[in-house]
Structures are given as structure tokens and as C-alpha cells.
């Protein structure tokens, strides 16, 4: 019981302080929201986890959800698909239609091979999720995810690393851990790693030497998990491990030489095999098209308006007038002296070899569960749901993927449940504290009001 002689000013200020602390607790319970780390191992084909022992992938799968077939977007290349994952849009709608692009409206080029990817105009047909996240007052952090060091619509991620492929995986992980555990933590992190794509191109996916490359990625995932555990983030944040595309085995027996069919001087190749973007010289569209249309049984050639609707790859000025697409495992070159790779991707997105891995693990997700199939465009609305932000118009479907969540939202989700409990406990504490305060102090003061009324009244008025 508070002694009656405590000056009421001090008692009241005490009350407000304790109440303030309780309200902070209540607020943090209310804002207690899932955090997400999105990881991409470039070119990690969906079935690599079955080729060699991958204990860390399987550990994540047993503790989370494994989606077996993810249909990514056409063209199945790096930049288009990484932008789809963070916008939920098909390539024709987000505007990053290839790794190598020419914009006839701007008369400007975009090139991954020349690292000329920083012109924001190429990115600004869409707004990636980190921008929307930050507009909602949250913080994002990105370790080299494509586009995250580009000022898109004037905005960069709250924290980011300028792209530099020589920066080790460990340094990228260290940054993310730092951002997730800082005093003003991020709720959304993105982590990108160049392998196993580069080695897949170089060795071919069927090469036994890919075994150690895949094992190395598994070790890197193990490293990430151990660092998250050490930072007490594992099991607390939601981690999504995915990729942009798979990889197909090529062969010197499966090469289509454009020079055999049409004069090189009649056109320019904007983007390379296996989905070749062709810009004919002025007035040469029909000539080039006619020459290539039935040239080779393993190459399908489309005028832009003929490109199949299911690819959603037509309605954009950066898609060139002619598109020549090779069958799986085939390459299209000028002639055989063009260097060609042992593995490649970019083919029809219906081909299983083009599909990426997908594992989601964390408190928001079901445990030891599998889902047969999803579209890569569905990740974006899922991320927005987890981050509690409103998705921008997109081509994904939250309904198609909500079954990977631990509790189907709409009913009381697991996250909703903990918020409700937090709010309930917080409110209870505030009520109990106020009741005790009123009983022990205010009533006591009121009883002696006839003596002390001037002293009691003033602080109450002031503190209000
Ligand atoms: C496009 O830009 C190039 C230089 O990058 C220039 O040579 C060419 O004339 C420009 N074309 C048009 C149509 O403006
Ligand atoms: C890229 O990273 C490496 C290793 O961290 C560093 O030595 C190099 O200076 C960096 N390059 C640039 C251009 O920042
Ligand atoms: C290449 O074309 C031949 C002839 O049409 C066809 O039989 C074969 O299946 C094609 N290859 C691929 C990988 O589609
Ligand atoms: C292939 O094209 C290159 C130019 O890119 C040329 O120098 C070479 O002679 C060509 N090879 C054949 C076999 O035609
Ligand atoms: C995961 O599920 C499989 C069967 O689907 C079961 O054999 C395995 O023991 C489960 N693992 C865990 C960790 O629950
Ligand atoms: C993927 O999207 C297409 C087109 O919206 C839809 O028909 C298909 O059912 C979706 N696939 C899955 C697995 O949700
Ligand atoms: C994809 O979404 C964008 C944005 O809502 C929309 O403009 C476009 O028509 C959609 N594409 C398809 C094929 O529905
Ligand atoms: Zn890639």
C-alpha cells in the first residue's frame, strides 16, 4: 500500500511512467510481425537436392514447406525472374524482359554482361516490394539481389550492398544478421548468391563435377542457418530459399547456326540464346522472319504479335520484333565459332529443367510439408501478406499459396493468435495496474481530499 504521505505529484508521475512502459509493451505486441529473409541461389534447379547429399536443404524442408515444382516466368533468365519474385509480375508487365535489352523508345541498352544495369528507367515499370515495405514505415536490407542497388523511383533499400560479385557469401550473411538485429531492425532481407548458376553454365548440370558445387551451396545454406541460430533468429524469422531458374545440358550436336539461313547484316541480336531477341534492320522484318521461320525443326520463330499468350511476353516495347526460341537443350548462335556454354537456361518456362528450388521455413510456415506446384508470381502476394503490406497490382494469387502457411489466414492465424495473446496480456496489465493505483492511492487521496484538495487537483490537471 502506498503510504498516504507520498506527495501526489510523485505518485502521479510514477503512474504515468509505469503506464507508459505497459503501453510500449502493448504496442510491441501489436506490431509484433513476421520478418522475412528471401534467399536466392542463382540457377539452383529444383532437383539438385536429389543429386547429392544436401543435409541442410533437407533440414530446412523437414522444418518447413517444400514446393516441388515452381513455374517461373518466361524468359527463364536471371534478371526477369528475380524481378518477378519481388513484384509478382510477368516480364512483359515489370519491364525487365531480358538480361540484355534495348529500349527503342529511350534508344538505350541494358546489359548484364556489361554490368550496365543501373538505368532506373528500365526498372520503373514496376515497384519492387522493398519500396512498398519502406513506404509502410518498415526497413529493408539487401545483399546483392538484382536491382537492389538501383535507385528505383528514387528509392533504395534502407540498407544495401553495392553489387560486387567477389564479396564472399559470409560477408553478405554478416550484413543481413547485422540489419536484422540492429536497434532499428529490418523486417525484410534479401540475399543473393551467384552459384550454382555460373558453374552450371560452365560444366553442364549433368556433369558429375556439379556434385561438389551443389554440396558447396548446401554448406552455404548450413552456414546461413548456423549464423541465424547464433543470432537467435532461426525459428523466429521466416526464411524462403529459392532461385530464379534451373539449367539444361547442352551439346555440340544441338547447335543452330543463324548464318546458315540469313545474312548477319540484316539484323542485330539484342539478347542471346536460347530465346534470341532479334531486331531486324529498317525494312527487313519480313525478310529476316521468312528466312528463319522454318529454318530448323528445333527453333521456333515468332513475330512479336505471334508469341504465345501463355508466356505473357508480348506487350512491352523492349520485346523485339522477332523472337527465336530453341527447343530444350539446343543453342542458337551465329556460327559454331561463337563460344557456347555447356549448360544454359532461358527456355520455355513449362520445361521442368527450368524450374527452381523452393523451401520456406519459419514460424509462419507449416512444418515438414510439401506442396506439388506453385507459380513464381505467387511469392509476391505471399511476401506482402507476411510483411503486412498491401500488394500492388500483380499477376500472382495469394489464395494459391496460402496453404503453405501454418494457419490458414481468415481464421486466427498463428501470428494473429500471438498478437491477440500479447494484446490481451498487455491490456490486462494496464487494467490491473490502474485498478491497483486507483484503489491504493487515488481513493486514499480522495479520502483526505478535505485536507489536501489543492495539492491533489493540480497535478492531475497538469498531467492530463
Ligand atoms: C541511338 O543512340 C546511338 C548512340 O548510343 C546513336 O548513335 C543513334 O543515332 C541513336 N538513334 C536514334 C534513333 O536516336
Ligand atoms: C569488391 O569486393 C572485394 C572483396 O570484398 C574488394 O576487394 C573490392 O575492392 C570490391 N570492389 C569494389 C569495386 O568495390
Ligand atoms: C528437335 O526436333 C525434332 C524434329 O522435330 C524433334 O523430334 C525433337 O523432339 C526436337 N528436340 C527437342 C529437344 O524438342
Ligand atoms: C564465324 O563467324 C566469325 C565472325 O564472328 C568468322 O570470323 C568465322 O570465320 C566464322 N566461321 C565460320 C566457320 O564460318
Ligand atoms: C517428416 O515427414 C516424413 C513423412 O512425410 C517423416 O518420415 C519424417 O519423420 C518427418 N520428419 C520430421 C522431422 O517430422
Ligand atoms: C499458375 O497460373 C496459371 C495462370 O493463372 C493457373 O492456370 C495455374 O493454375 C497456376 N498454377 C498453380 C500451381 O497455381
Ligand atoms: C498482370 O498484372 C498487371 C498489373 O495488374 C496487369 O496490368 C496485367 O494485365 C496482368 N497480366 C495478365 C496476363 O493478367
Ligand atoms: Zn540466374
From TrEMBL:
Its cofactor is Zn(2+). Keywords: Glycoprotein, Hydrolase, Membrane, Metal-binding, Signal, Transmembrane, Transmembrane helix, Zinc. It is found in: Membrane. Pfam families: Phosphodiest. Residues 1-31 form the signal peptide. One of its GO terms (molecular function) is hydrolase activity. It is a single-pass membrane protein. GO terms for cellular component: membrane. It comes from the Eukaryota. The chain crosses the membrane at residues 420-442. InterPro entries: Alkaline_phosphatase_core_sf, Phosphodiest/P_Trfase. Its main location: membrane. Belongs to the nucleotide pyrophosphatase/phosphodiesterase family. This is Ectonucleotide pyrophosphatase/phosphodiesterase family member 5. It comes from Lepidothrix coronata (blue-crowned manakin). The lineage of its organism: Eukaryota, Metazoa, Chordata, Craniata, Vertebrata. The gene is ENPP5.
